[in-house]
């Protein structure tokens, strides 16, 4: 076994449910968990949600069409309840019995938090993807609704990602597996991005689209000057931000490449929509007043809600 870089597959072989129909037409697109070992396990306990595959109600997730996720548990409880109120759809209780993540169901929409950074989010995605796979959910879209640092965009602007870059400016997600660096494509669904962007325009919410840099941390990985440690100059920082702009990057967060890669492997559409809390060209500290913060964090949510309501109406 070498210690080199390998290109991982984006879609593995299927496990159980297949996509398409016998006569070759598109058919339902099932959520795929392609791990062949899962076939040999009668039971699967989704530890970070406290949900068991063999529990009687796993099939209650079969109708899920949209999974909305983002870092904060409190924000996602608030979003789920607000969506239930606005759409007149009853909100479930918190379906997660672990304190790691929350999960709420409003009809065909699931609201889940994922914590900060790809390692935390990947646990959520692995378990929610398996949940929806076991439930035989089909034609599912995942949308990450979040916050970010803007690159040349004003605070409060919503950025709809049309692509993701890792710290080497590659459209790849990197994992260490078996002492190897495994790189997988980290691309997003362009039609979903366009629908979200158009919805933002229609609602009159400040919205832009562009690439999103996925950093591995909030401070040095995003070239901030205000972390506990810093071994570069202010000039280096601005050089970096300038380079980001040249690559079409409009915002920086900490999940985008992992989100794009895991969702692709699961055969689901993925979109990322994040409000910019600050313009990094003007500083590093997030100091917006609380009222503005609340107003800003509802902007991407309002766009997603309008998008979902249009989808539900057409179901
Ligand atoms: O959950 P959100 O999108 O607000 O998370 C962003 C990216 C990082 O996880 C976190 C850093 O503050 O904000
Ligand atoms: O600057 C920011 C703001 C929110 N989230 C980030 O990752 N970076």
Overview of this protein structure:
There is one protein chain. With 315 residues, the protein is α/β, with parallel strands linked by helices. The protein has 2 domains: 33-139, no CATH class; 148-315, Rossmann fold, CATH 3.40.50. The chain has 6 helices and 13 strands. It has helices at 73-87, 118-134, 190-203, 234-246, 256-265, 290-313, and strands spanning 5-7, 45-46, 51-52, 66-70, 103-106, 109-113, 141-150, 158-165, 172-177, 180-185, 207-214, 249-253, 269-279. The protein has a 5-stranded mixed beta barrel with strand order 7-12-11-8-13, surrounded by 4 helices. A 3-stranded mixed sheet has the order 1-10-9, with helices on one face. A hairpin with a 2-residue loop joins strand 9 and strand 10 (180-185). Helix 3 (190-203) packs across helix 6 (290-313). It is globular and about 60 Å long. Ligand LQZ7MJT6 binds at residues 70-72, 116-117, 146-147, 218, 253-254, 274.
């Amino acid at each position: 076994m070498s210690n080199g870089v390998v290109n991982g597959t984006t879609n593995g072989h299927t496990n159980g449910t297949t996509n398409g129909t016998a006569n070759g037409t598109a058919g339902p697109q099932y959520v795929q968990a392609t791990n062949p070992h899962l076939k040999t396990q009668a039971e699967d306990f989704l530890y970070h949600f406290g949900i068991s595959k063999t529990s009687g109600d796993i099939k209650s997730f079969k109708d899920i069409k949209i999974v909305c996720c983002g870092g904060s548990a409190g924000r996602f409880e608030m979003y789920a309840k607000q969506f239930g109120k606005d759409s007149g759809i009853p909100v479930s209780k918190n379906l997660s019995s672990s304190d790691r993540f929350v999960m709420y169901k409003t009809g065909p929409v699931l609201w889940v938090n994922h914590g900060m950074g790809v390692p935390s989010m990947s646990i959520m995605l692995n378990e929610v993807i398996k949940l929806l796979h076991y439930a035989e959910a089909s034609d599912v879209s995942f949308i990450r609704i979040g916050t970010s640092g803007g690159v040349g965009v004003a605070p409060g602007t919503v950025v709809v990602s049309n692509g993701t870059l890792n710290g080497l400016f590659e459209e790849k997600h990197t994992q260490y597996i078996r002492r190897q660096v495994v790189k997988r494509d980290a691309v997003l669904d362009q039609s979903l991005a366009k629908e979200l962007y158009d919805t933002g325009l229609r609602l009159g919410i400040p919205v832009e689209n562009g690439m999103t840099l996925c950093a591995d941390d909030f401070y040095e990985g995003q070239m901030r000057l205000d972390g506990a440690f810093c071994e570069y100059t202010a000039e280096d920082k601005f050089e970096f931000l300038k380079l980001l702009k040249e690559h079409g990057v409009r915002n920086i967060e900490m999940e985008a490449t992992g989100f794009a890669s895991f969702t692709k492997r699961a055969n689901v559409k993925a979109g990322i929509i994040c409000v910019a809390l600050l313009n990094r060209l003007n500083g590093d500290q997030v100091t917006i007043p609380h009222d503005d913060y609340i107003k800003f964090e509802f902007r991407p949510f309002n766009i997603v809600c309008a998008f979902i309501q249009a989808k539900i109406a057409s179901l």
